[in-house]
Design brief:
Order of helices and strands: H
Region (Disordered): 23-42
Radius of gyration: 28 Å
Strand content: under 5%
Largest sheet: none
Biased composition (Pro residues): 23-36
Structural class: mainly alpha
Number of strands: 0
Length: 55
């Protein structure tokens, strides 16, 4: 009887925990700082990180 009781108890606990939705999701990463108003954002071109091609 004891060998049947422990797996049954664990199964009921796991089944009950699966029915409860999580309270909060994972924390969001912090947002990057925004430039001051009117500032121009300059993005690097994609070609800056490419390896040079020798023809």
């Amino acid at each position: 009887m004891k060998h049947l009781f422990i797996p049954l108890l664990l199964g009921i606990l796991l089944w009950g925990a699966a029915c409860v939705p999580p309270r909060n999701g994972p924390p969001r990463p912090p947002k990057p700082p925004t430039p001051p108003h009117g500032a121009i954002q300059q993005a690097l071109p994609d070609t800056a990180f490419m390896a040079p091609v020798i023809v």
